[in-house]
Design goal:
Blueprint lengths: L3 H20 L3 H36 L2 H8 L2 H33 L1 H16 L7 H32 L9 H24 L4 H10 L1 H14 L5 H17 L7
Helix pairs in contact: 1-9, 1-10, 2-4, 2-10, 4-6, 4-7, 5-10, 6-7, 7-8, 7-9, 7-10, 9-10
Amino acid sequence: MFSFREVLSAIQSYGKAHQFIKQHNLWKWIIIPGVIYAILFLTGLYFVFNYSRDFVEYLTVFFHIREWIADLESSWVSFLYILVEWAITIIFLFWYLSIFKYLFLILGSPIFSWLSEKTEAILEHRDFPFSWKQLFSDMLRGIKMSCRNMVYQTGAILILLIVSFIPVVGWITPMIGFFIECYFYGFSMMDYSCERHRLNMSQSITFIRQHRGMALGNGLVFCFFMLIPVVGWVLAPSYAVIAATIDLQNKKLR
């Protein structure tokens, strides 16, 4: 289970992140990765939506679902089919967008790691010594963690994809998929701080599971940011990193 207090704290940390960004004039570190993310996201969204519809169409043809529905001659069954079809499409979108998210996190890892470090350095009035060796080590760890999360999330989405074929029960699978997406994104944002405090992957996973409410809350706001065209896409990634770092400031990372 998760703590609703932690969910609320993670949500409120976005307001603190906004004030922090304004106070310390970090806009260039928000805009630059944000514009790149927005361009990649928009391009990926176009292709993903088209291919997801093609995938659903292929399934219906392969399993002769439409012929079966036509033989039943039931408007109620046809209505259920439309709902299930959309549920599958949405789940498929979650799956592809989650893969895109991890690819972007891997590519943007140096910037996001630095942004999280910069945030904590300002909050605690101290500097973290820079090391190329440590930077490459952190990038390798980040890639491993992203691949691990991608495998887990993909497994969960595939299970939801199967469940989505079940009438009535399948209707709620997009909502479950949405919360899974939120959790894993918040997980990634929190891991930058865990990484900086030299938690290994196992320790980081354990810590974030103990504070899954923070991960869920951080990811929720990120996903709602993504509902705002262009502006939300630009601001979401860096805001999420800074908000997670601020939210973790008073937590004992161990």
